[in-house]
Design goal:
By secondary structure, the protein is of the alpha+beta class. The chain has one domain. The chain has helices at 5-29, 57-65, 114-149, and strands at 45-52, 77-85, 92-94, 106-108.
Length: 150
């Protein structure tokens, strides 16, 4: 693997997790939205990640150990493949005075579960912090290499 590959991989993960946090925040903000521009209640969204670049890690590692892999040739990392709407139906709540109530007095609520969203937020935050630690370690190593070179 090239010298900057770990930085490139962590930087791509930082961007992906930041977008995931934005989507989670949007879900929480719309947890009570019963009417959207598309019609109906808000649908929870989720981020789908995909590998970016090379995914054959073991052969790549073996080639790197033999010196057969050019620096910077991996292009590895993560990317957001898409943002998908959760198709699970929301709860139906009896509230006949609600402006979005149907003829029977029921309102279909968004399918957002705050416990799930907070758990996802914690996971995304931890992933973000872990990748930030890698970037920080890379910076310390680079500075240390410059100090050694003096």
């Amino acid at each position: 693997m090239g010298y900057f590959d770990s930085l490139r991989i962590s930087a791509s993960a930082l961007g992906a997790q930041r977008l995931r946090l934005d989507v989670i925040a949007n879900n929480i903000a719309n947890a009570e939205t019963t009417r959207t521009a598309e019609g109906g209640p808000y649908r929870r969204q989720d981020v789908v990640f995909a590998a970016q670049g090379r995914t054959d890690f073991l052969p790549m590692l073996l080639a790197a150990r033999r010196g057969q892999l050019a620096p910077g040739s991996t292009g590895a990392g993560v990317r957001v493949a898409q943002i998908v709407a959760d198709e699970e139906p929301g709860a139906r709540v009896y509230d006949p005075v609600h402006p979005d109530a149907d003829a029977d007095g029921y309102v279909t609520m968004p399918n957002v579960n705050l416990v799930t969203e907070m758990t996802n937020m914690l996971s995304a935050t931890r992933s973000y912090e872990a990748n930030l630690s890698v970037v920080d370690a890379f910076q310390r190593m680079a500075l240390r290499a410059l100090d050694i070179g003096r």
